[in-house]
Design goal:
Layout: H1 10-37, H2 41-51, H3 59-63, H4 73-90, H5 92-102, H6 118-127, E1 134-138, E2 141-144, E3 149-152, H7 164-178, H8 191-203, E4 207-211, H9 214-229, E5 233-237, E6 261-264, H10 269-277, E7 282-287, H11 302-307, H12 319-334, E8 338-341, H13 353-358, E9 364-368, E10 378-382, H14 384-387, E11 390-391, E12 394-398, H15 409-422, H16 425-451, E13 456-461, E14 464-469, H17 479-485, E15 488-489, E16 498-499, H18 506-525, H19 538-554, H20 559-579, H21 583-602, H22 607-628, H23 635-638, H24 644-664, H25 673-703, H26 705-736
Parallel strand pairs: 3-15, 5-6, 5-7, 7-8, 8-9
Antiparallel strand pairs: 1-2, 2-3, 4-10, 9-10, 11-12, 13-14, 14-16
Helix pairs in contact: 1-10, 4-17, 7-15, 8-15, 16-18, 17-18, 20-26, 21-22, 21-26, 22-25, 24-25, 25-26
Bound molecules: pyridoxal-5'-phosphate (PLP).
Pyridoxal-5'-phosphate binds next to helix 9.
């Protein structure tokens, strides 16, 4: 046979093996280096989103999710009911309104109770209406449908920087400027040129394009950098939010696995190494300059704010500014465009946005939210080379980035007013004062919370702030409900991200501290936060519970099966309440159930003994009912079981079987006894099967297949659950006695 491979001499073979090993090593090291900078959170969150199934805590688990000692449960239950009543009383009209809107919808909005861990969500959705329905705004407050003026820290998703009253004015004046043109789209209102000039001055970039929202600005920017660099990869950082488009947020609930967006670790030198190494593939590095400030996580310079009263005098030296500067340097060195997504941070931290605040220049900057003076908008500013939509060398190659509502006259009018204001010399001071007041407020409030022993601390970045929890708990999310009861309007991320606007007065700040303090104190009194003495080892128990819950959610059976299980358990519970409350009856049930379990095992090897034992146990069981809880029998009929009359008939037939066998036996002597005993056992077995399956079949036309199965499964599993139900009760009664 011909050898298809060239015969190599031994030294050549060694060289070949060496070369292959070297290539593998190079590939491996490249892969490993890339891996070091790679964020796995998007991948993990996608994986978990597929694996983790919905689970709702039972009533008991809801209150004991942290394994709290039992005597706290009643307090918690009463507290939640009271909180529900308080919130319902505050929002009668809002609830009615929400009910009307809900009509055909399962949830009022996606965000309804979305900041509640899912096992708790059902109870909260059913019991609480957190829909905020507002009818007016003034200063730092919002008026809801029920006439309450709530203090507003939601910041309208970040739009409200300057205070609602200013936006109302800008919208009004903006409309006056463009109203002669009205809703005309296509031809541009002359005011657009002024806006472009102001945006160019603020961003320090050459060109501007308008879009309908922040998300669209992100989409436009990624398309433009790809088009103009002819590269495909967009780098973004873990934890960033860049709008709802799943092209740049491979985490955050996105199901789509994408290969043209690389998510790297935030504030990590390994990420810089990856950018350097893969520069030739990278179309742009997209960064949200305040992204490290995730909901519930502190801003990168929090150490300054939390640990001392030192103020930021030079923001350019904060750790996060240092990171952005390094990122800038690496992008410049690697020839990769740096894109700042300032949809949130632009005009929030400083009039010049994050570029101004952190002292870092980007090649492309995106604005949105507040920049149109209260109207919807998305803006992309970029260098000429990155903003081209046509390829001068290839006329048929173009980046088709357009949108009907881009440069809407009303948005342009209000934007003009806003930009004019932002460029006033005194506006810089307004920002500086608001940022400094927020810092002062954080320091003062934290001192108060610490003095009161409350497990919360606030951190901030500019006028953005978040509540951090300083002790382990499974109920921190409940604080948002307590805050609402105090009249604080939060955004859908709850206490995760809150904002001040320039309308907040000193009195508002003080009022807010008092409300947060009152809410937290109430939550502690209601025993949602327990001290180490109240709940020893709580941190460990909580970790174990969370792990157990995650495991149970991953391996949770499908929903219909869960519903079936809950139905069986509900009927068992009703059954226990209806006719198993007497102690003697419980003891007899324990006895008979243990015997049944033994018989389940025995029936496969020794049917005769199993049946005689089982029948004995059945009589003991029924004796308990007949003796101590006779009036309850008929309630069992409601549970689809047998009523007293049919039970008597069944018992009668069981008794008749041995009698008839004895009468029919040709001889009755000791030698014939084993045969007779076995025959009786077999007939009992047959009769049991007939009764059980017959009753199940009988239930189907009357109560449906599912209910029939519920009865069947309940019946055959009763011995197991009886032990779980009665053994601890009896033990407790004994201990009590
Ligand atoms: N980019 C950032 C940084 C954002 O914070 C947001 C919205 O919160 C967006 C983009 C999306 O903006 P929009 O909601 O207007 O689409």
């Amino acid at each position: 046979m011909l050898n298809p491979f060239i015969q190599l001499t031994p030294p050549a073979q060694t060289m070949l093996v060496g070369l292959i090993a070297l290539a593998c090593l190079l590939l491996l090291s490249r892969g490993l280096l890339n891996l070091r900078g790679r964020a796995f959170t998007p991948w993990l969150s996608r994986l978990l989103s597929r694996l983790v199934r919905t689970r709702d805590y039972s009533e008991a688990d809801f209150y004991a999710a942290d394994g709290a000692p039992e005597h706290f449960i009643a307090t918690r239950r009463a507290a939640l009911d009271a909180l529900q009543q308080t919130l319902s009383a505050r929002g009668v009209k809002s609830s009615e309104w929400a009910g009307r809107v809900r009509g055909g919808l399962s949830d009022l909005r996606f965000t309804d109770a979305s900041r509640v861990p899912f096992p708790f969500a059902k109870r909260m959705r059913e019991g609480f209406n957190v829909a905020s329905v507002a009818v007016a705004s003034q200063g730092s407050r919002l008026l809801d449908l029920d006439g309450n003026w709530n203090i507003d820290v939601s910041g309208s998703y970040g739009v409200n920087v300057a205070g609602y009253d200013r936006y109302k004015e800008w919208m009004e004046r903006g409309w006056q400027r463009v109203q002669a043109l009205g809703p005309v789209l296509g031809p541009l209102h002359p005011i657009v040129a002024d806006n472009i000039a102001m945006l160019k001055a603020i961003s320090g970039l050459d060109e501007v394009s308008f879009h309908a929202s922040g998300t669209e600005a992100v989409m436009a920017a990624t398309r433009l950098v790809r088009f103009n660099t002819r590269r495909k990869l967009i780098v973004c950082f873990a934890g960033a939010y860049h709008g709802w488009w799943d092209g740049v947020q491979p985490g955050l609930g996105s199901e789509r696995g994408i290969d043209d967006c690389l998510t790297l670790k935030d504030i990590d030198p390994a990420s810089l190494a990856v950018i350097r190494r893969r520069a030739k593939e990278i179309a742009g590095v997209l960064v949200n300059p305040v992204q490290a400030f995730h909901p519930n996580s502190p801003p990168p310079n929090d150490a300054i704010l939390l640990n001392s009263s030192v103020r930021k005098t030079d923001t350019n030296t904060s750790p996060y500014a240092e990171w952005l500067k390094k990122l800038r340097a690496v992008c410049t060195e690697a020839g990769v465009p740096l894109v700042f997504d300032e949809v949130f941070s632009g005009f929030r931290l400083a009039p010049g946005g994050a570029q101004d605040y952190f002292g870092v220049k980007a090649d492309m900057v995106l604005y949105g939210k507040t920049v149109a003076g209260g109207m919807p908008i998305g803006v992309v500013c970029g260098s000429q080379g990155l903003m081209r939509r046509f390829d001068p060398a290839h006329p048929m190659r173009m980046a088709y980035v357009v949108g009907t509502f881009a440069a809407h006259p009303l948005a342009m009018g209000a934007m003009y007013e806003f930009l004019k204001w932002s460029l006033l010399p005194e506006t810089t001071a307004v920002y500086r004062i608001a940022n400094a007041r927020t810092t002062d407020w954080v320091v003062a409030s934290n001192q108060e919370f610490a003095a009161a022993g409350l497990p919360i601390a606030i951190t901030c970045l500019g006028t953005i702030w978040t509540v951090q929890f300083t002790q382990p708990s499974r109920y921190n999310w409940l604080l948002q409900y307590y805050l609402r009861a105090q009249g604080i309007n939060l955004s859908w991320v709850g206490t995760g991200r809150c904002m001040f606007n320039f309308d907040f007065s000193n009195e508002d700040y003080r009022d807010l501290t008092a409300k947060i303090r009152a809410a937290a104190a109430q939550m502690r009194n209601d025993k949602w936060w327990l001290s180490e003495t109240e709940h020893p080892g709580r941190a460990k128990v909580i970790k174990q519970r969370v792990a157990k819950d995650l495991f149970a959610s991953v391996f949770a059976p499908p929903r219909p099966l869960q519903a079936f299980y809950h139905e069986v358990m509900r009927r068992k519970h009703d059954d226990h309440v209806a006719s198993h409350s007497h102690r003697l009856n419980q003891v007899l049930h324990l006895l008979s159930s243990s015997t049944f379990i033994f018989c389940y095992w025995l029936v496969f090897s020794d049917l005769v003994t199993a049946m005689w034992l089982g029948l004995g146990a059945l009589f003991v069981r029924q004796f308990g009912h007949a003796l101590v809880e006779p009036p309850c029998h008929d309630k069992e009929q409601l549970l689809l079981g047998f009523d007293t009359r049919s039970k008597t008939k069944v018992v009668g037939i069981y008794l008749l079987i041995p009698i008839v066998n004895c009468l029919a036996a040709p001889v009755l002597n000791a030698a014939a006894a084993p045969e007779l005993i076995a025959a009786v056992a077999r007939q009992w077995f047959g009769f049991t099967a007939l009764v059980v399956f017959g009753h199940t079949l009988r239930l189907i036309p009357k109560h449906g297949f599912k209910n029939a199965m519920v009865w069947f499964v309940k019946l055959i599993t009763d011995p197991l659950t009886d032990i779980k139900a009665y053994f601890p009760t009896l033990l407790r009664q004994r201990a009590g006695a």
